[in-house]
Amino acid sequence: MSLPGLKKVDGKDDKSGPPPAPPRPRVGLALGSGSARGWAHIGIIQGLEEMGVDIDVVAGTSIGALVGGAYVSGALGDFGAWVKTLTTRDVFSLMDFTFSGGVVKGEKLFGFFEQMHSNPDIEDLDKRFVTVATDMKSGREVWISKGPVLDAARASCALPGLFSPFQHQTRWMLDGGLVNPVPVSAARAFGADVVIAVNLNAQLVGAHLSRQRPPDEEHQSEEDRSLWQKMTGYFAAGEGQNPGFFDVVASSVNIMQDRITRSRMAGDPPEITLIPLLEDFALMDFHRASEAIDEGRRLVDRHEGDIRAWIGSPHAVVDATADREDEEG
């Protein structure tokens, strides 16, 4: 008896037909920490989607957790359009300044985001999502993969000295970048076969949190430029002066995260590493989203060959499947 789909050759079943297409690898994104440089994550995700890459697992640390949360919630398009409109005044209006545990509480920013977009539970998402935080009491790395998306993201975004700690399920959480700045291990543990890692902390040792550079000089009003200079003047020193508060915080964070990233990625290297060229970005340059997003898109274009080499051509797999179905039909 002949098996379905096989032809007879000399009285025997012919098994020389086209081989089935190999199964598509599960693709994971490890979105790293890096404050304002993290807007590049938006451009990278958009570039991958335009290339036809299906992302199955998203692991995020700090700003990577926020952007990743917007993506898995289906809000990345609107979120990206919104951050492009941010001015210096908008950034400061979203920051509820405090000196209790950090300079910024973060409630305004995340509250505003929740008003604009949905906040589904991670368990209800189509994609697997996990964020990385640091338990303030034990210093242990904590993976959050249940509960509201924004709570998981906020727990990961508590940069010491800048954002206040966040209480998650009775435990106070600090920024995940303290223990795992580029969460390759988390993406792999949650099922990714191929991990695309975005490292925002390379080439940044010596960079500062703010350099008193007035943002968007051609488009900002004199009042906004004055506001920026006044606020950064409280915390950052000029060239040749003693380091200011933000200088010390930013340099310490950059050094720490760079060293931890090198160590973690040496032990568990991703298949693809993307490094946005944003060395002139200060940690508080959230108003420069367009530049970072554009760099993210360019980065995907520059690495298209490597990406396709690891995951194959998504369109080719689809076409091969369609061809087999036509033959069998």
Question: Could you please describe the fold and organization of this structure?
Answer:
One of its GO terms (biological process) is lipid catabolic process. This protein has helices at residues 40-51, 63-72, 76-84, 88-93, 107-116, 149-156, 184-189, 222-235, 245-267, 289-302, 304-311, 314-328; strands at residues 7-9, 12-14, 27-31, 57-61, 128-135, 141-144, 166-168, 171-175, 194-198, 272-274. With 329 residues, it is an alpha/beta fold. The strands form two sheets. Strands 3, 4, 5, 6, 7, 8, 9 and 10 form an eight-stranded mixed beta sheet that branches. Strand 7 and strand 8 (171-175) form a beta hairpin. The two termini are 20 Å apart. Mean pLDDT is 79; it is low at 1-7, 206-215 and 315-329.
Brief characterization of the structure:
The chain has 12 helices and 10 strands.
Helical run tally: 12
The portion of residues forming beta strands comes to 5-15%
Could you tell me the number of beta strands?
10
Straight-line N-to-C gap: 20 Å
Which shape, going by the Cα principal axes? globular
Low-confidence runs (pLDDT<50, min 5 residues)? 1-7, 206-215, 315-329
Largest sheet: 8 strands, mixed
Label the structural class: alpha/beta
**Averaging pLDDT over every residue, what do you get?**
79
What's the Cα radius of gyration? 23 Å
Write down the secondary-structure element order: EEEHEHHHHEEHEEHEHHEHHH
Specify the helix fraction band: 40-55%
GO molecular function: hydrolase activity
Keywords: Hydrolase, Lipid degradation, Lipid metabolism
Organism: Alloalcanivorax marinus
Pfam families: Patatin (PF01734)
